[in-house]
Fold Nicotinamidase.
Amino acid sequence: MSRALIVIDLQNDFCPGGALEVPGGDDIVPGVNALMAEFGAVILTQDWHPAGHSSFASEHPGKSPFETVEMPYGTQILWPDHCVQGSDGAAFHADLDTRRADLIIRKGFDPGIDSYSAFFENDHETPTGLEGYLRTRGIDALVMVGLATDFCVSFSAVDAARLGFEVELLTDLCRGIDLDGSMDAAMGKMRAAGVRVL
Ligand code: VGL
Ligand code: ZN
């Protein structure tokens, strides 16, 4: 069995002081760096939105961040502008050891659709290509860490489990946003999908 470490969205905008800060987001950086040494494959994801992305509340007159809108692919939570392509906010945390990354997969670049998961956009259909990359490298087990537990990490973990990967989530190396019980809901969905939550 060949394993990969998947580090989700450890970017400035999700760390304290960022546009969509996750409490304690930066605390996990040293632990994530240390964990990289245990893996033959390390993959980073990077939330990467064009300016004016449809998930930004600023694009929806009368709407505020954390309200929702109906999109053709379902209900979308609206976010503060974040992770705009090429901005400092979209950069990885300065202390993250990006040298070890075999692949950096960017997501959320289509202006009309959000992409929480590392595998599919929020229509749950459009692939990012990560599945093919992992399979062609013979990787069948994934360990996931990163931000935010209840959005991009849980969507990625659930999709990976559904695709047949063996998935472990290291909660000590994840931090969440927790909007209206989203943390408990995410834990329930991950466990139901067969993700080992450690
Ligand atoms: C994320 C909301 C919007 C995440 C990304 O990384 O969890 N959450 N974009
Ligand atoms: Zn985003």
User: Anything to note?
Assistant: The longest helix spans residues 149-162. The CA atoms of residues 17 and 89 lie 10 Å apart. Helices lie at 29-36, 130-136, 149-162, 182-193.
